[in-house]
Structures are given as C-alpha cells and as structure tokens.
Amino acid sequence: MNDKALKVLEFDKIKEELKKYTTTSAAKDIIEELVPYDNSYEVREHLEETREAFQLLVKKSAPPFEGLYDVREGIGRAEKGFLLMPVQLLRIANLMRCARRFKDYISHKEEEESFRVIEDICAGLVPIKKLEDEIFTAIVSEEEISDRASSTLYNIRRTLKDKTTSIKSKVNSLVRTYSQYLQENIYTVRGDRYVLPVKVEYKGSVSGLVHDQSSSGATLFIEPMSLVTLNNEIKELRLKERAEIERILQELSNKIYENIIPVKNNADIIWELDFIFAKAKYAGSLNGICPKISEEGRFDVIQGRHPLIDTKVVVPNDIYLNEGITSVVVTGPNTGGKTVTLKTVGLLHIMAMSGLMIPAKEGSTISFFKEVFADIGDEQSIEQSLSTFSSHMTNIVKIIDNADENSLVLFDELGAGTDPTEGAALAVSILENLKSRRTKVVATTHYSELKAYALKVEGVENASVEFDVETLRPTYRLLIGIPGKSNAFEISKRLGLPNYIIDEAKKGISKDTLKFEDLIQSLQDKNIKAQKDVREAEVVKEDAIKIKSKYEEKLKKFQNIREKATFDAQREAKRIIKEAKEEADKILKDIRELERMGYSSDVRQKLEENRKKLKENLEKVESSINKPNKDKGKELKSVYEGQEVYLPTFDKKVIVLSKPDSKGEVQVQAGIMKINVKLKDLREIKQTKAEKKEIKKKSINLNLKQISSSVDLRGMDAEEAIYTVDKYLDDAYIGGLGEVTIIHGKGTGILRKAIHDMLRTHPHIKSYRLGAYGEGGSGATIAVLK
C-alpha cells in the first residue's frame, strides 16, 4: 500500500487511537508497523481474530494482562547470559503468569462457542509454572528479595537481626554514658556503621574512629572503639547477604537462560495478543462491526461513519459500488460532505484490510484492493513551484501509471484548478481511461459535464450530497443514483434576490436544462422517500426476527421446564411418602413401648391393622404418582383450538392451542407452560356449561407473574446474597427472562466475587459480565440466562 494514501486518509491517526488501548510498548510497536495485508486470506483471518477478541471481552471481561510489562530488554539480557535485576526477573515472571492464565481465559465448554484463531495463537504458549513460582517465592517486590529465597539468606538475615539488636542496645548504653559530650542524645549511622554525634570540643573525651563531620563543623561523628567489632561483624554479614542475593539472582537468571526459547516465544505471543485485544477494545469504542470481504471489486458500506469524527455529530451514510459499476461521480455544493465521503470510503477499506473492525452496521461488505490511491486536498507546493492544478496532475499521473483492476482510486474535485471546459474534458478522459482498466473510482466534482457523462455511460453512476433548500444547509447525506442539483435559483430566492432577476436568469438557460434540473429534484425526492421506506422496513423486519427468536427460545425453555417439573414433582412425592412411612413406623414403635408398659394385646392387634391400612393407602398413593392415571376419559380422535382436555401424564386439565401437526402432536397450555404432546395421550372430559365458561374466562385472563429484571443485593452478606440470587434466578428462568441485572455495589469486591463464583457454575446461567457505562459499571453484573 502506498504511503501517500495512508497519510492522506489519516490512517496514522487511527493507529494513534489504537495505541491508547494497549498494555505494553511492544504492542504499540506492532501497531506502528501496521499496514493493510497483502491478500484477502490474511485480511479475513486478522478480522476474525479481532472479532473473537471482541466476543471474549463481552463474555469474559478483560483478558489477564495484570502486571504485564514490556520485558524485551530483560529477555535480551537473559539471552546473553547476563545477571538480571529483581525488577526484570519479577516482570518476566509476570509475563509467564500472564501466558499461563491466557490458557484458562480462552478455555470453554465443548458446547460453547469456540475461538478458532485466538486458540491457534495461544496453542504456542508454554506454561513454565515451576520457574514462575520460584521467582515469585524468591522476590517480594521490585527492590526486595524474600527471606525464603534460600536457607543461607534466611540464616544470614536472622543473625544480622540479632547483631543489630545487640549493637543498638550497646550504642544506647554509650549514648547515656557520653550524653554530656554529645550534640544530641541520639545515635546515627554513617556508611552502615553506628556512630555518636560528639561535640567537636569533646572529641578527646570519646575515644574512637571519626567517620564524618557536620556541615557546620560543630559535630564529629565518632564510632566508639567498643562498637568497632560489632560494626565490623554487621558489615561482614551485609557483604554476605549481598553476595547471597547476587547468587540467587544469578541462579534465577540462569534458569531464564535455560528456558529462553519458550520465554521468548511466550513473550512474542503475548505482545501479539495485547495488539489483538487493543483492536477489539478500539472496535468497542467505535461500536464497530466485522465486515464481509469481497474479491470482486464491489463494496456495500451500510450506515458507515468516519471514525475520526465525533460520534455525536457524524452523519452515517450508505456507500456502495454495485456489481457492473466501476465509477461513482459525486456532485453537490461545497461543505456538503463530498470530501468526508471520499475519506470514509478509503479509510474504512484500509482499516478493514488492516484487520480492524469498522464503524458501520452489520451486513456491510468491504472489497479487497491491492492498492488504494487518493488525490485529496490542496496539493499546492510553493517549494516546488507547483500550482494546485499542476500538483494534482502530478499525483494523477502516478495513479494512472500504477492503477489496475485491483485498485481503488479516490479523486477529490477531479479536473479542478484550470479552465472549466478543459478541466471537465480532461476529467472525463481520465475516468474513461481508468474505466477501461476496470479500476474502481469514486470521484467528486462540480462539473455538469461529468453528471451527463455518468448518466449516458454504462458502468458509471451518479451520486450527490443532499442539500436542504429550506434551511440552506447541507444534510451530509449521500444519495447514490441521483446527480446533484445546483439549487442556485432556490438559494438565491430564499436569500432575498428579486424574482424578476431570477426569471431573467432562467431565460438564459435552455428549457431542456431546466427540465433536467427539475427531473433531478423529482428523482431526489423520490429516492429520499424510498430510502426512508426501506430503512423503516428493515427496522420492522429486524424487530420481527428478534420477537420470533425470543418466543422460540421461550418455548424451548418451557419444554425443558416441563420435563424438570415432572421429575421434581415425582421426586418430591416419593420423599413425602418415605417420610410418612418413617413417621408411621416411629408412631407404631412408640405405641409398642406403651404396650409393654401396660397396654393389652388387643390394642396391639388393632394398631397392627391400622398400620397395615396406612401402608396400603401409602402404596396406592405412590402407585398413582409413579403411574399416572391414563384411564380417566376416553381417547380423542380430534381436537379443536380452545378445547379443554385431560392430560394424564400431568394429571391436569389443559387447553388445546393448536390442531395436530404431521407428527400427531398438538400444543397445549398447562398452567404457565405451553407444551407439545401426542394427540393419543389426551383424554376427553365432560364439562358443564358453567365450567366451560369459567375455563374460558381463566384462559383469557391468564397472566404470568411479573418478574423484575434486576435484583439489589447491597447491604447483604455473601451467604444471604447467594441465597437471594439463587431464588431470583429460578423465578427469572421460569418467567422467561433472557437477561437480568444483579446489583452488588462496588465496595471491596468481596460480594461481587462471591456472586461471580456462584454464577460460574449456576445451571440457569449462559454467560455473565460486568455492567457497561450506563448499566452500573463494576457495581452490577449482567447475567444472560439459558
């Protein structure tokens, strides 16, 4: 890709925005070298990796980049066998931990969506847990080595601590002894040796070694002779400590050297992952989508937006090049948005071909071009003595020398800067030449000759930027298929120019020209209405599809609930029967005890009879539960909608909602559930007119319990919150909610962690994430139900 197009279309600004989302400078360096890829396969793969990273951010929140630094310098030193500092070792250990955690981050259940490209990238990560643990065990912080790093270091520091305690006791005693000679009744340290601040006039009264003098000269820092030996011992221990620390660091550095290949490989992959997730985060900020890639030279950007214009003011536009069309000629007034349209087309293509998601609507298509050429802006050069026209033409000559059928060419004000007649003729010739090569061209112009050229030449299409005559302001909307109307008369009239002057001006224009301008206006109005109708139809269609999917999902949930409810009911009934049997046996046992204490054998016989009757009754109940009564009513050969029938499987009256399908199944309403059952499993029931009327009334007034879409846990402890959420999720699942909000507050994060641990294994939960801006942020969790 030529550098001029990348500069003119401001791809460097996109890369600067992208860098803001990286964690390491290594990823920033990758972005700095980013250019469009050479073939469509690479484009698709890099777009897919961005899409997968975006999905991971949505489903699993932020990737495990905590504590990650750019450690290329440290790895380079280790590769040469040099000693690494604690900070370098610690950061390399953080890198290894990040690589290991990424393996867990991308893992998923078999039935869940996979992330093919990122999983392939992460397949090269090699966990080095043992070395990672050794470094974290040995190094406490970037400047401190742990006592646990080695037994030798532990013993040295323990001895050093004892010696320090001893010398502090000794020096405190000397402070009291020599207090009259001291500047202050304290001791101090000079060069790791404990000394006393002696007044200079009493230097002979305190025998010892002078280590320093105050800036005023009034104080000498003397090490008493009685402390020399202890200070020497402490100095020796500190030297041993330093030597042991260097030995530990050298040992860890050697282990890094021994594992340098997997460490370097992990680092390269982590830098790449940092770059990929930066692309995903940037896509989120743009509300970007992953476009389809065409290789036929056609593109269709739906509601595309320029990524560098504020989202609050940018006007989305549909920009497309249909099959069979090689050139689009855009006309319209100055400041109408023609140049922004050109830059949007070029920049979105460059972004997509660089693996970046683009700010547009789903379904957009981008074409793969080997080259994008752009002649945009004022190219006047004083240094080279080139006029605007000459400079533009120099650039156009280069484009014509290199453009082919795999190129996209963007011309801004083609042919401008010279005589209008000659400029228009030259512009037509350039477009015709590029058209013969099947080069794809989008050009802006003010020349009417180019409008006519686009109307009469096959493969060339007109377009215009809309202008509101009522407000005298551009709308910045692109209208493809319609040439721009000058609107000079209408604008002049609204600005107050007398009608007789405008009428006189119209006489100087041929009737055919005026008719052509009126035809343009008519086409423009019809096109605007048609586009509005299409957009509204698309919105209605999307809503209908969403509603259909929602109710299909609800039906599936109800069918699952039916099976679960049946199983739970049978299990609960068995439990009740078992408890009743145990209770009866206990009562009988207690009565037998009473019998031994004085009751007669007749009483015992009656008790046994009652126990037997109780057992028989319980067995009958149990049998009726395990084997539903299918004999109630006769089988039905046909049913009609709204008919009440008996369903033996549930031992329940249900309402028929549909006629039998090809499989012989009908849909029925059982309580809050809609389920499909076989026609042969239904039984007829006899009803009075009053009962039918009551059933009809109930079926009409059927209303599901309203379940709130959120639950507030603030103020609860973890145990109470988990119980509340569990019960709420059961209600939400049965109520058919697809997504719920769990409000736990920010605080220390303990409650949030407890809730996330529960959601991770909860049977009703499909996925969960922290709330976005406007959803409560980190103080709320959004859970998606199965």
TrEMBL record:
It is an enzyme of class 3 (hydrolase). InterPro entries: DNA_mismatch_repair_MutS_C, DNA_mismatch_repair_MutS_core, DNA_mismatch_repair_MutS_sf, MSSS, MutS, MutS2, P-loop_NTPase, Smr_dom. Residues 520-624 form a coiled coil. One of its GO terms (molecular function) is endonuclease activity. The keyword Repeat does not apply. Residues 711-786 form the Smr domain. It comes from the Bacteria. ATP binds at residues 332-339. Keywords: ATP-binding, Coiled coil, DNA-binding, Endonuclease, Hydrolase, Nuclease, Nucleotide-binding, RNA-binding, rRNA-binding. SUPFAM superfamilies: DNA repair protein MutS, domain III (SSF48334), P-loop containing nucleoside triphosphate hydrolases (SSF52540), SMR domain-like (SSF160443). SMART domains: MUTSac (SM00534), MUTSd (SM00533), SMR (SM00463). Its EC number is 3.1.-.-, 3.6.4.-. Homodimer. Binds to stalled ribosomes, contacting rRNA. Belongs to the DNA mismatch repair MutS family. MutS2 subfamily. Endonuclease that is involved in the suppression of homologous recombination and thus may have a key role in the control of bacterial genetic diversity. Acts as a ribosome collision sensor, splitting the ribosome into its 2 subunits. Detects stalled/collided 70S ribosomes which it binds and splits by an ATP-hydrolysis driven conformational change. Acts upstream of the ribosome quality control system (RQC), a ribosome-associated complex that mediates the extraction of incompletely synthesized nascent chains from stalled ribosomes and their subsequent degradation. Probably generates substrates for RQC. This is Endonuclease MutS2. The gene is mutS2.
